[in-house]
Design goal:
It contains 3 helices and 5 strands. By secondary structure, it is an alpha+beta fold. The protein has a 5-stranded antiparallel sheet with strand order 1-2-3-5-4, with helices on one face. Strand 2 and strand 3 form a beta hairpin. The protein is globular, with a radius of gyration of 14 Å. The structure holds guanosine-5'-monophosphate and zinc ion (ZN).
Length: 114
Amino acid sequence: MGTCLFCDIAAGKIPCTEVHGDDDFLAFRDIDPKAPTHILVIPRGHVSGLSDLQDADQDMAGRLVLTASRIATAEGLDQAGYRFVINCGRDGGQTVDHLHLPILGGRAFGWPPG
Ligand code: 5GP
Ligand code: ZN
């Protein structure tokens, strides 16, 4: 594996604005927010993206969603609502190849997405 931006952030080699951290996950504010609240939740272990999830990742993937849900509530987004948007691959618009669950909130979103 070569250099991975989000592995470096998880290791503390690159600074971030941390929102939540535990043994398995890190959540930090997006550097280029697309909404008033834009938080990225990542597993500390490297997984390239949704397509690379394995059976062994089942517990991690479930806890990733639960962790993000709790962060959304802690950010005060649960009453008005929010959106989780995991981009995957070229057509999905993924630009960083380390699985990240973005929490977007603080404004109303259109549907379908662009
Ligand atoms: P993707 O395009 O893969 O769905 O999402 C990658 C996200 O990472 C983008 O929203 C982008 O703004 C964010 N991002 C890229 N580089 C950095 C960085 O160095 N720090 C932080 N906090 N966010 C980053
Ligand atoms: Zn990584």
